[in-house]
Design goal:
CATH superfamily of one domain: STAS domain
Mean pLDDT: 77
CATH topology of one domain: Transcription Regulator spoIIAA
CATH architecture of one domain: 2-Layer Sandwich
Helix content: 40-55%
Low-confidence stretches: 110-135, 156-165, 293-309
Oligomer: single chain
Radius of gyration: 28 Å
Strand order of the largest sheet: 1-3-7-8-9
Length: 451
Amino acid sequence: MFGILCLTFHFMVLLMLELDIVVGIIIAGFNFIYSYIATSSVHRVMKRSRVERDLRERVLLQNMRMSIVTLELEGYIFFGSSVKVMDEVRRHVLVTTTEKQEAQTSSLSGSSPMLSTRRHAPSPYVARSLEDSFNDDLATLDSVFDKHEPHGYSSTPKAGKSGPAALHAARTRYFILDFEKVSGVDATAVRSCFNATKELLAQHGIALIFASVPTDAERLLRVHDVIEKEDGSGTGSLVFDTLDKALEWCEDELLVSEGVLPLSESAPTTSGNNEGQPWQLLDELLPRPDGSHRKTELNSLTDTSKPLGNEVSSAAVTRELGEMYVTHSLKQEGETLYRAGGLVNGVYFIGYGKVDVFMPSKIHEGLGPGFRGRKRITRVCQGGLVGASEMILHKRHQFTAQARSPSSIFFLSKSHYARMQKVHPTLAARFQQAMLQSMAIGVLESNLTDD
């Protein structure tokens, strides 16, 4: 600003006053545009939802999470910065080389895959399994028309269901724009950027999702049919209140695409009598001492030619042992497991359902200015644990845990766990292994993301 004033003074000395005013306005206009472009930023972040799932789902998502691309927008988004947003979108979206060749063919025939008039035509890649994207080479969208392919990526073949694969690039399936740090959006940016981004991604069967959109920006996006209506109708993209909820939805969709239904919505079906079902469920969720699956042990039980080891039989959660050490209860939506400030008496295992662990509004807002409402720390689903780290680190609960759907809860108290370690050490080792696995994979997920 000081430089503009000095430049204006020199023009006043050398030129006429009227001409100086015109030149000053032009220079101020360019400075305005440059300052907004400089303050707005776009960069990719690696995030995961704050949902704690069972070990099987968490391992699957660890391999598939790279197919979710999250761009964090910051500052004021207007027509000058929309070019930067579009460039970043094209630079971070990965498609298979087969799709790239088809895009090049369509460009030669005169049709543009960037701005197609077939707004919501079904893409042939939507129904494709994620299996295909792990066996093809990948390329970014900004190299679609580049014959030299400067941004090529080789995807590692996907591991089988028996073992996880190393972290690798994956074909983009979901693209999230996070508006949490956006101060405002200009109407020109909606038309020149977000509508074009929606069309571009739709051509490749990629879902565009918006998160944490300011109220004014959300109104503009709805007017231009970029996002869905308030009642959920329309052909616009999905919009979520927070990035965490957007990531949770994407992860659920990825699990469904792999034929794995999320285990948090309803009670699982188990064989046997109703009285023994809860303990059978707990036995199936706990890791086995030999690392084998439940079906393997059932086969060994029915095979009379093979002797049944004492370790396997003593580690099984029978109804008798379950009632001796563990308290089973059914919680309805809204019921509380424990409250912040209460004594830590044990650990909770989620049989099925959903439990939210959150910081209450009174505590959250008491941290200082700028903190509003309650803050969700994590959501725990079937096979997850609640309160394990607090049982180890604290004497009182730091957060509140509340059921968000009808849930089956298993509670193991400190005293019963101590007695189990003495009387039934093999069974206690399974509970200990469950707690260690949960905390270990939580640390691994945090290391792989920008949490």
